[in-house]
Description:
The complex is a heterodimer. Chain A contains 8 helices and no strands. Chain A has helices at about 5-15, 25-50, 55-75, 80-85, 90, 95-105, 115-120, 120-145. Chain B has 7 helices and no strands. In chain B, helix 3 (about 40-55) packs parallel to helix 6 (about 75-90) and helix 6 packs antiparallel against helix 7 (about 95-120). The chains are: A mainly alpha, B mainly alpha. The interface between A and B is large, with 85 and 89 residues.
Amino acid sequence: MEPLETKQAYQEYVDKKSPNSPIWKNCFNAFWVGGLICTIGQIILNICKQRGFDTATSGTIVSIILIGISAFLTGLNIFNKIGKFAGAGSLIPITGFANSIVSPAMEYKSEGYVMGVGGKMFTVAGPVLVFGISASILVGIIYLIFNTQSITLV
Amino acid sequence: MDIDWSQVFNIASLLKCFFVGGLICIIGQILIDKTKLTPAKILVTFVTIGTILGGLGIYQYLVDFAGAGATVPLTGFGYNLAKGAIENVQTSGLIGAFTGGVKAAAGGIAAAVFFGYLASLISKPKMKKQ
């Protein structure tokens, strides 16, 4: 084969030879695993509603159950196997939030139970809470000022 | 109380939930594959977007349509925060903006802290491969 003269030609050669990132396969796996987790949540939600809980309480029960299950699956090293397969499918549901708390805590266990586990738990979950709660306070203040929820929509 | 299992396994609601939940995860997967965002930033992005959409009242339509398919993904966590803030502003004014969000999401946050700590205690650190 001829030597590759320019940088551009080399880049094209590399692009041709390197395998396509399997985005379709990743998306498919994320779709059905994510959908399945949400469906499990919906089944729990329906059971709660049948038992006579209101919508908000049922939603909280669903979150608590899913978070509990995924926290312990992470502790048993099962969740990261699912995560490797499903990518965003297990990251985006609330299970990913629990996973993001347990994984760093496990890793820094050797640094002790207070600053190691207790401190590193919030490496990822901390920013999530900071931005989520701050945004919700802004939403509340904006709602207070304009006193309408869909100001730009109608 | 007897449980009506045909209502629990209502195929139409489960299918809607499956498709909407799956689609939200596909958006996350595309962000992972096509951008250089780390998973942590993607989680933050999803929660923030959920809060904004919840505040605008758009996410409510998705929740009405798909149920847990919209509330279980992290955007639903954000929606819950925004909804709590708005509802508490209606009942108690400015202070509600500060108490409402966390109040609505308190169960999830507390469960995550508690179960997260417990699960870390029982786990064995994975041995690094040599």
